[in-house]
Design goal:
Belongs to the SWEET sugar transporter family. One of its GO terms (biological process) is protein homooligomerization. One of its GO terms (molecular function) is sugar transmembrane transporter activity. The chain is an all-alpha fold. Helix content is 75%, strand content 0%. The protein has 8 helices and no strands. The longest helix is centred in the middle third of the chain and has 28 residues. The two termini are 23 Å apart.
Length: 210
């Protein structure tokens, strides 16, 4: 359940401006793209009735994540370009496999459970991806490596869908998004603390390897 993609991130503005991915990692966008696809499928009426909002939001998220990935591949060096292209193909193949298996081997109730567990795994993986950034922020006492808008949108998105999941009595929605809410809040607290401590006023970056 991802509307993080609704923000055109400063990271990609910089990539386009410099025509280089520098040391930015493309992996978070691969994780987010897979999560959007799985959650989109979970929200489809053929899998889960009465939660079409989940499918709608994640279809938009998947489009934005795909755009981010294409931009990244366009400006990446040869090695990263090949790696990211391979990962994009692998994620697409994995999603098609999930759709095929869920439609072929499961009835309606089992299908929802099967895809629901997969959506939980994909969401927790996506929310956990910034953990290495949190460790780096504490180690360096710098928020340079923590994108503020990513943290803010993670918190708001997770909180919104946690509430929605509780309203719908759907643990496959409120459990992973509850975890995402906590992780997003931790990132915001750290960002505020270290920004005030060292008075940084700079564009946050995500410096890692694809």
């Amino acid at each position: 359940m991802n509307f993080i993609a609704m923000f055109f991130r400063p990271t990609f503005k910089r990539i386009i401006r410099n025509q280089s991915t520098e040391q930015f990692s493309g992996l978070p966008y691969i994780y987010a793209f897979l999560s959007c696809l799985i959650c989109l499928w979970y929200g489809m009426p053929v899998v889960s009735p009465d939660i079409i909002l989940v499918a709608t939001v994640n279809s938009i998220g998947a489009v934005f994540q795909l755009i981010y990935i294409i931009i990244y591949i366009t400006y990446a060096d040869k090695a990263k370009k090949l790696k990211m292209s391979g990962l994009l193909i692998a994620v697409s193949a994995l999603f098609l496999t999930v759709v095929f298996l869920s439609m072929t081997f499961f009835d309606s109730h089992e299908r929802q459970t099967f895809v629901g567990y997969l959506s939980v795994i994909s969401l927790i993986s996506m929310f956990a991806s910034p953990l290495f950034i949190i460790k780096l922020v504490i180690k360096t006492s710098s928020v340079e490596f923590m994108p503020f808008y990513l943290s803010l949108s993670t918190f708001l998105m997770s909180l919104s869908f946690s509430t929605y999941g509780v309203f719908k009595s759907d643990p496959f929605i409120y459990v992973p998004n509850g975890i995402g809410t906590i992780l997003g809040l931790v990132q915001l607290v750290l960002y505020t603390y270290y920004s005030n401590t060292i008075g940084e006023d700079q564009e946050p970056l995500t410096n890692a390897h694809a």
